[in-house]
């Protein structure tokens, strides 16, 4: 499988990590979920991200899950593995292992606690040195990391470190940042890089209009993300937005802080793609009111798709 590079485009789905009701890894559900992503037409898969509950996995579990997914996909699409870790040696060793297993790249978020541009720059200088030629997705997610990267710093990082290939943009509000990053490229200051966006696709159509290449996020209906991005890039922008609008109530509901992953996993369970909606502790679970709201939203979604010809 070729490695990721600056031409990455489309939907790189953030895969959930399925667990049994007892909280153990559910690898059979992982197989089923991965096949559903591929059937939906995703262009790539990212595992062990924030919504993959990576911080709740042991090192052994992370490796077990990565091995299973990489073997299941078997080169059909690129697989990016989240490798962020407090220690550089741990990050380097895990990255080497998953790259040897067939991963197409690594995703690295800044270390929590970095405050200044120089600190962040110095951190990625160490990361790129440690990971060598491994292509890297730079994850910009200040809502979780508490690290804010200005557009000028983003541009500097991509200018100075060739192994950084993709910006996973998740700052919100962040539309202006997209414009400023693209403007630096248009001015000829550095190479063009891929920008894939997260935040549960909350702002996806607007981000596409600002010039991003696709999505690197999760949603319970991966096929919606794929179809919206492909329609947009094919020039059918109004139809792409019409389709997105049908799903928007569920997108919004799934983006509730703290509860979103439990909602996404419950929808995946209802669709038969995973066996349990278990979110590892500490994590939320849905009550009867949440389930009733989800019943309502899914019924409206089915009706809206029929009425609008999707």
TrEMBL record:
This is Dihydrodipicolinate synthase family protein. The lineage of its organism: Bacteria, Pseudomonadati, Pseudomonadota, Alphaproteobacteria, Rhodospirillales. InterPro entries: Aldolase_TIM, DapA-like. GO terms for cellular component: cytosol. Belongs to the DapA family. GO terms for molecular function: 4-hydroxy-tetrahydrodipicolinate synthase activity. CDD domains: DHDPS-like. Pfam families: DHDPS. Keywords: Lyase.
